[in-house]
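Bug #77: duplicate submission created two jobs. Keeping one. Sequence:
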Amino acid sequence: MTIFLTVLGQGSYATEAPYYTWIDENGVINFSQHPTGLDAKLITKEHRFGKEIVEKPKNQPVPLPVVAPKSEDDLNAEEKSTQEDFEKTMKEIAIAKRENCDRAKKNLMNYNNRGRIRLKGEDGEYRILTDQERQEDIKEFQNRMNENC
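Kept job's structure:
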């Protein structure tokens, strides 16, 4: 009977899950498998009785690595690359603005030169714009020209 209790006791000790311990703001010692304290310490069956473990819980923030300062050459290369990216982006914006300007001019010319504007609706049927809709579209095209030309 004694052997059975000894084996049973060792079995439950061997399967005990690791847990964390920390002291909260009220000075109370807490134990949990899901820590809420930032300075929680992991306790496993191998590391009990006063040994401190370096491993921190997984849900704690990881400190950022210290980045060494860059050399002059690295900074110059990075600045050059940044400048090239900026110039490329500005060229793309200029091309898009020019295309938007041309499209707005073309649409404005069509709306001003034609008496009636016929558009295809969502249902696939054609309809004629009312004068109010036509004037709203003309204002929109003028605004696009002001922004892009």
